[in-house]
Amino acid sequence: MSKFKIMTDSSVQLTTEEIEKYDITVVPLSISINGKTYIDGVDISRRDFVEKMNESVELPKTSQPPIGRFVDTINNLTADGSEIIGIFLAKSLSGTIDAARQAAEIAGKSDKVHIIDSELTDRGEGFQVLAAARDAQEGKSLEEILAHVDQIKKNQKLRMMVVDLKNLIKGGRLGALSGKVATLLNIRIELHMPEGKLQVVKKGRGKKFSKSFDERVLKDIEENKDRIHEVGISYVDTPEAMEVLADKIRAISPDINVLVRETSPIVATHAGNGAYAIIYYLDVE
Prior knowledge:
The chain is α/β, with parallel strands linked by helices. The protein has helices at 16-21, 46-55, 67-78, 96-106, 122-137, 142-154, 166-170, 177-182, 206-223, 239-252, 265-271, and strands spanning 4-9, 25-27, 30-33, 36-39, 61-63, 83-88, 113-117, 156-162, 187-192, 199-205, 230-235, 257-262, 276-281.
């Protein structure tokens, strides 16, 4: 029976304890700010990144891991005969998944590396990584692991609030909508990512719009509380407000585990200050 090792990228939302417990390999992305390049999570923390982003005149640039880094990682993980399940952030957000595929080909290990587009990032990606890692430790087959990950993917929800559109517009992530939105005062937007595609679902003005967003998401969690066991809240620069939101979810059901953490540089770069996301999935009935 093959042993499976789990590989992912640094946009994922996982705790240090989860990474160590399930022996997950995280391949870091790169970040450039004011002409200096950092390795995500290695020589720059998420908190430090936000501070540097706020001081920078230009929008930071994030880039996929170098293919050589992937090749080395793949060779190391497969040296003992193991196979790899690689789960990465949505292809629509980054070329990371393509770099992983190219690296597997260069290493001559395409048949040993099973690559999955999470169609999300952050904790949504993390839910899939954790499911695969737990299944691998339990000795499940490749088919069982992939089916489990796919089940989570099909039932996951990302609900994101962007309160400052400056970075999204600069980065071109809003496409044709950016010109229209840029002219509006104090506009906030709600984003979803169905099937890995970033979509603007609603837009409105000010804190009232954000409050309505929170209420709608909390209502959905309330209605599905028996099918939700994990919720991730990820944010840029608003830890206190997010803990308040987390407490509201815990009040709905103490059985729901809520993880509140600062998001990765790749999300923070485009979402900007004040942005936050609520991420969860429904268990199949």
